[in-house]
Amino acid sequence: MKLPGILHLTSIVLKSRAEYALIAFTFPSVIGFLISSTGPLSISQLIKLVISVTSVAYSIYLNNDLWDLEDDIRYINLGKPSAARRPLAQGLISKKGMKIFVILFAILGLGSALLINVQAFLAQLCFLAFGFAYSVEPIKLKRRFIIKYLTLASGAVLSILTGGFASGGIPGRLLFFIIISFIIYFGLGSLNDLRDLKWDKEVGIRSFPVILGPKITVRLMLGVLFGVMGGFILGYFQFRFNVAFPILGLIILAGWSYSIYPLSYRYEDESFVKKVVVKRTYPYWMLLLLTILLGSFQF
User: For the segment 79-106, what is each residue's pLDDT rounded down to a tens digit?
Assistant: First the structure.
């Protein structure tokens, strides 16, 4: 394949998983880096951090596409939209080609982490190991009830920790950020599975919506958000965030709760579920991340 073709294929592969790699892991790691920084920012460390976390996340999700190929082809035949966007399932890239991407991203990610420091390397190595265990047979943590959500939340924690290691410290505010992120990712994973409810039933994935039902799943996420509200109030007093932290945080969390509540009775409307989970949930999460960062500044 000539260079233009390789670049075009790489672009397709990157776009297919950008939502997860960049928003779910890279962005929080950068926030963690900024929260932990006490002196002048090291741009070189920040660049290495972004390359490391993004590359490892891509390696994990592209490897997941390899192991889920048969299921994705079945999903396409059943009409699942997200499966139809995956290059491997569409036949745009071979399994051999995808394996090359998985290996290259893993090497690039771990190599960049090692250039940061040993702690960052170990954190990303654990992230990669958990991510592969999520998909690879016979472990396949994604089929294990509750464990799949703990794995996702652990990936977020390790990404944020890598940001702290890159900046040179793990302050109390970063630990608070890690705890909040772990709780939210646990709930977000279950909410995200509402999009795949009928597909997960087909292939036997034991998700919260499948086991507990959609209504309880939505209530679980609402409970998570209300719990995080309490955490923001406690965090304000315990970790000396500025006054913008609890005010903006509570407003965002209240708006987030209001936006997902209709899912408790409109969970069968696939287009509405996708609209809420993707177009509303991700922006609220990013706003919350920025609020935590803003709250760390002392005016």
Answer: 666 655 788 888 888 899 999 999 999 9
Burial bucket for residue 160 (CB in 10 Å: 0-12, 13-18, 19+): buried
Distance CA 31, CA 27 (A): 6
Domain boundaries, given as residue ranges, for the chain: 14-148, 171-299
∠ at Cα 144 (202, 98), nearest 5°?
A: 70
Intrachain domains 14-148 and 171-299 with the same fold: no
Q: Which residue has the tokens 């460390």?
A: 45
- CA distances 215 to 153, 154, 264, 269, Å, are 22, 25, 5, 13
Q: The domain 14-148 is classified under which CATH number: 1.10.540.10, 3.40.50.2000, 3.20.170.30, 1.10.357.140?
A: 1.10.357.140
- CATH number for the region 171-299 comes to 1.20.120
Name the pLDDT band for 295 (thresholds 50, 70, 90). very high
Distance of CA 16 to the CA centre of its chain: 14
Q: Is 82 helix (H, G, I), strand (E, B) or coil?
A: helix
Token duo for residue 91: 């036949």
Q: What is the mean pLDDT of residues 107-117?
A: 98
**What pTM does this model have?**
0.92
Dist. CA 165–CA 181, nearest whole Å: 17
Nearest-angstrom CA–CA distance, 205 and 202: 8
Mean pLDDT of 31-44: 91
Give me 136's structure tokens: 């690879």
